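does this look right to u?? hexanedioic acid version
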Amino acid sequence: MKLDQETIERLAIRLETCELGAIDTHKITDDYPDMDWDDAYAIQNAIKRRKMARGARIAGLKAGLTSHAKMKQMGVEAPVFGFLADYFSVPEGGLIKTSELIHPKVEPEIAFVTKRVLRGPGCHIGAVLAATDFVMPAIEIIDSRYRDFKFDLKSVVADNCSSSRFVVGGRMGDVASLDLRSIGVVLEKNGEPVAFGAGAAVLGHPAAAVAMLANQLGLRGEEIPAGTLILSGGITEAVALRAGDAVTLRMQNLGSVSVRFG
Ligand code: 0L1
Ligand code: MG
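got this back:
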């Protein structure tokens, strides 16, 4: 690691203050160009500890930048991982206050819920499918704290991968009877289809993103507990929203999920 504990805590406070106050900032690698991956995840973990100390629960985990469309959109080359706090969860059909966010975008995702522990290294698609209780359609709302969504991978990891809100809904799907690679998705904004894709856009198979997350946590001696909700990553490019917009995600065989922005 290149940063000392005091700097990590200070950067965590800076990024979390931006999140809670809906204020943007410049990317932290502008100030700390030599910071490494351990520093980036240490800042993310410090943000998690701050939330938990105030009584927040961790509601799930997420993989980000898992599709080529997203990697190309953001000009980066590898997936990243973050956590979901309880207050990020919005009820199906609910209203998201744009005044609480900086520049929200939505992503259509497949959410996994596990029934058994997943532990890397060596975790693979088969292990993920065997440990999955069910899958559901999910809309992730991302909101980078960095000005104009301009960042590099380490800055984005420190910023908990732009995590902000999420909605799950639709039907619970059994992975034994679904081919998650060929599941089609349509994202509608104000009744108009604006993005289309299939599950395979996420690393060839959405379960691969969950396996990668288990393997990444395994390097730190951590695991994905049974009963964890995991957002496996955007299937299409992220779509920008503003107050007054309504979004519906339709997912083949899994129903639909909606959210409104006010
Ligand atoms: O969930 C995501 O794919 C977001 C990862 C962070 C990058 C971004 O803000 O687009
Ligand atoms: Mg996402």
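The longest helix spans residues 5-21. idk if thats expected tbh
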